[in-house]
Amino acid sequence: MEDVSYSEAIQKANASITRFPLIPVKGIPLMNHIANNWDSIWAFRPDPSDILIATYPKAGTTWTQEIVDLLFHNGDAEACRRAPIPLRSPFLEIWSPPPIPSGLDLLREMDPPRITKTHLPFQLVPPAFWENKCKTIYMARNAKDNLVSYYYFDCMNMAQPEPGPWEGYIHKFMRGELAWGSWYDHVKGYWVEKEKRNILYIFYEDMKENPRREIGRIMRYLDLSVSDEVISRIVELTSFKNMKENPMANYSFIPASVFDNSVSAFMRKGEVGDWTNHFTPEQSKMFDEDYEKQMGDVNIPFKTLI
């Protein structure tokens, strides 16, 4: 599907796009159109060569997708501008009003190896991904920055549930009442399975701190080999500034009636530590105390500042 027709499909579907309600699937709140088509999603069988990019929402998903696509195309920027990112790297579980194609529709049109994106927690990933030993990259972002980014996204995304005020959103996040459920369970689910399932677990903060090193890790994990010059090019092409200006990656192809950039940009800041501009000292203390309780059973080395 060409990018023009994809944009046109979204325009045509505008009338039926609303803030979709959440319905639990195996205890995880998902938007109703995902829940209503769950059997088809769960039954999806990837090719063993397919790559899965998994994240909690707003944890560096698009960034990781673009890096992987560039690695597969040897850093060729033009090849990676062939289509908007949802067409190059389909969103596995997404279902939208017709005529927008679902993630499964797009995947069926592609030849392996396919790069697939998901926000599903580990236990909801279609089991054939693990049966077929698909390579999986999991990008995790520290809770406070992830919360802030998700809040702004829910404000500007007219298909997500109404976020309500910031003060209440913090509690929704802590209770796992947002689309795709609990951040805590999400990051822990992939962490505890990473050795058994050969999952490459990377951190947003490490990627910000040393993108060359982390892109090299991804390259080796994918059994690819590109030159140092190509790695340098990918570092430059996937900088926040360049990603934000790239019309094939910045979601500017989504109409304003769905992604309202006057409320917030899809790519807003991409910083580590922006949470300090949003949490009051009291909110931070409350959050930290709850965090210790929810994360006490694992030792995942998150950084809230770099």
Describe the structure.
This protein has 306 residues and is an alpha/beta fold. It has a single domain, classed as Rossmann fold, CATH 3.40.50.300. The protein is 42% helix and 9% strand. The protein contains 15 helices and six strands. It has helices spanning 3-13, 32-35, 38-42, 61-72, 85-88, 103-109, 128-131, 143-156, 166-175, 183-193, 204-209, 211-221, 228-237, 240-245, 281-295; strands at 22-25, 28-31, 51-55, 115-118, 135-140, 199-203. Strands 4-3-5-6 form a four-stranded parallel sheet, with helices on both faces. Strands 1-2 form a two-stranded antiparallel ribbon. Strand 1 and strand 2 form a beta hairpin. Helix 12 packs across helix 13. 38% of the residues are buried. Its main location: cytoplasm. Residues 48-298 form the Sulfotransferase domain. It is found in: Cytoplasm. Its EC number is 2.8.2.-. This is Sulfotransferase.
